[in-house]
Design brief:
The chain is mainly alpha-helical. It has two domains: about 1-35; about 40-220, no CATH class. The protein has eight helices and no strands. The chain has helices spanning about 1-25, 30-35, 40-70, 80-115, 125-140, 160, 170-200, 210-220. α4 (about 80-115) runs antiparallel to α5 and α5 (about 125-140) packs antiparallel against α7 (about 170-200). It is elongated and about 65 Å long. It starts with a helix and ends with a helix. The mean pLDDT is about 90.
């Protein structure tokens, strides 16, 4: 009887260990760490989509403030300088912090699946590119917390208006540094996508058999 009971006891011990490991993995702290350190292309794509939607809400608030200010003549809600800041940051957020990362999120989710790749070519580089985007975008928007406010020279940053004389505040410097970080992350993500499409297609997936979305990712 003892011989028959030993395997059952060992199996019960293994089951309890598996359950304990599963409980640990489901703890909130472990879930947060998993999302913050992930290299899975689907999870990173979800992070891109969620972050871009958050910046969309921020840009939408700026748009509402500008439209409310223009509803009637005179100064109603924000000053002239604050209006220029909202105009500058609204364009920057909607184009570079919402639209571009939104496409990157869909590309991370869909493109590897459509070409039969298990993941992108450089998973850690993919994660690093996302954090550069988030870090740089936060720096640029954080200019609103400075005493002089955010950048106010227009999101095209014309040189007569964006020099040190006409834009002396630190918000302009944060705008430039933030876009530099975010832009570098976009470049790294583009290199990752191009390498994945060219080098990691499934057998039989020729260039002219690729779906149109993959071609859009490659050319965009």
């Amino acid at each position: 009887m003892s011989i028959l009971n030993e395997p059952q006891g060992a199996g019960a011990t293994e089951d309890s260990n598996d359950n304990e490991l599963l409980i640990r993995r489901k703890q909130p702290g472990n879930v947060v760490i998993k999302w913050l350190t992930t290299t899975d292309h689907k999870t990173i794509g979800t992070l891109y989509l969620a972050t871009s939607f958050a910046f969309f809400l921020i840009g939408g608030v700026m748009a509402l403030l500008m439209r409310a200010e223009l509803a009637r003549p005179g100064m109603q809600i924000i000053s002239n300088e604050q209006f220029n800041q909202a105009f500058t940051m609204h364009g920057t957020v909607m184009l570079l912090m919402f639209a571009t990362p939104l496409f990157a999120g869909f590309a991370n989710w869909i493109m590897p699946l459509q070409i039969g790749a298990p993941d992108v070519a450089f998973p850690r580089l993919n994660m690093f590119a996302y954090w550069l985007y988030l870090f740089g975008s936060t720096i640029a928007v954080g200019g609103f917390l400075t005493p002089q406010g955010a950048a106010d020279f227009g999101w095209f940053a014309y040189s007569p208006l964006s020099d040190a004389v006409r834009s002396p505040g630190i918000g302009a410097d944060m705008w430039i540094m933030g876009l530099a970080f975010s832009g570098f992350g976009t470049i790294l993500g583009s290199v990752n996508f191009i390498t994945t499409i060219i080098c990691m297609r499934a057998p039989g997936m020729t260039m002219f058999r690729m779906p149109i979305f993959v071609w859009n990712v490659l050319l965009t």
